[in-house]
Design goal:
Length: 376
């Protein structure tokens, strides 16, 4: 889109130059002379030539603003050289051009050369360094490099506490396509996916409301990102374009990003370095939703998606259980908690707080010797 706006500006400038010069009294006064024809033919001919050359060249990449200035500088230098060529051709072939005609040709030639060089640099900025050593168009980021959040790290939620603790003193960036994926998950027909998606949107809203967290929803449309397939590929292209770091809890995405030479911050690796929060002997409440792989095991999940394996919970699917943590496992792929069934969670009473809200109290009854279970 930006390139086509630039092309439109080019044609406005060319037509304006031709109109101003052709309508001048010196040139228009002798409409049948060689001056009028020279201005019209040379101006339109060069403009059409460089425009077709630009449009028919295969697209590559949209350049940074530095590439535009560099192309403009090169175009002006080429224009100065070609201006001398115009005078030389006029003298060699005895073409009687008045100064106004020669000036008009040089102006149009200069505009065309500047346009052509800018267009070439915008398309091939990644190869400029091979032609001109030590010249590279790289985006300069002021201050700390931004931290690009993916869907998994938003749903995980630990990024909020990390930012509040000032561990990440960098601006957070959420691309528009990540926000769209969160909305898609929140609208899923699957209950677990829907809960995770809504949790991610709530956490994102919490971060935006916190004045201590510098977060931005980026709506920038980049051609390379639109051409990329899948959210993971778009994330890597976006992170590289913003010269940032990718924050994720996705093990496979972090490995692919490392292969693509994209800096990654894996929250699970960070949590592994800081040790696991869940300690053996602590109590926890979890709802069993499916059987485990081993006999008598039940599987539940915390709000952040952490898997909880409950010993003795296979026949208690759909029930809220109170368990005691026996061990936990933290890897780059995520966190797992192992626990032992202690009893059923039951909200049997509520006490009113001074502000009118209810405060619930959970109780449970330990299983009897014959294995029977009942609510208290």
């Amino acid at each position: 889109m930006l390139l086509w706006v630039f092309r439109a500006i080019f044609w406005v400038i060319v037509i304006s130059l031709l109109f101003v010069n052709v309508s001048s009294t010196e040139i228009s006064g002798a409409a049948g002379s060689v001056n009028f024809v020279a201005v019209l033919v040379s101006g339109l001919g060069m403009a059409i030539f460089v425009f077709l050359l630009d449009v028919l060249t295969p697209k590559r990449k949209l350049a940074a603003l530095a590439g535009v200035f560099f192309g403009l500088l090169v175009g002006m230098l080429i224009s100065i050289v070609l201006a001398a060529v115009v005078d030389m051709v006029s003298d060699s072939y005895k073409i009687e051009l008045i100064p106004q005609t020669a000036r008009a040709i040089k102006w149009v030639l200069g505009v065309c050369m500047c346009y052509l060089t800018i267009s070439v640099v915008m398309r091939t900025k990644d190869d400029v360094r091979f032609v001109i050593p030590y010249v590279e168009f790289a985006k300069q980021t002021k201050g700390a490099r931004p931290l690009v959040l993916d869907t998994s790290v938003i749903i995980d939620g630990r990024i909020v506490d990390l930012c509040r603790s000032k561990l990440f003193d960098a601006p957070l960036v959420v691309p528009r396509f990540v926000l769209n994926e969160l909305q898609f998950i929140a609208d899923s027909a699957d209950k677990l996916k829907r809960q995770r998606g809504r949790r991610g949107l709530d956490i994102l809203n919490e971060m935006q409301s916190d004045p201590k967290i510098d977060i931005e929803i980026d709506d920038t449309t980049i051609e390379d990102i639109e051409d990329a397939k899948g959210v993971d590929q778009k994330l890597m292209v976006f992170t590289r374009d913003r010269n940032g770091r990718l924050a994720t809890t996705d093990y496979n995405l972090s490995k692919v990003a490392q292969v693509r030479e994209v800096d990654v911050v894996n929250i699970n690796d960070l949590a592994s370095a800081l040790k696991v929060i869940a300690l053996p002997g602590e109590a926890m409440q979890v709802k069993v939703i499916k059987p485990g792989e081993e006999a008598d095991q039940g599987i539940g999940y915390l709000d952040d998606g952490t898997m909880v394996v409950v010993e003795g919970g296979r026949n208690k699917i759909g029930r809220d259980l109170l368990i005691s943590i026996t061990s936990s496992l933290q890897t780059s792929a995520g966190k797992m908690i192992f626990g032992k069934f202690e009893g059923y969670a039951q909200d049997d009473s509520s006490e009113s707080t001074p502000n009118g809200s209810g405060r619930r109290r959970s109780s449970f009854r330990r299983p009897t010797g014959n294995g029977a279970r009942r609510r208290q």
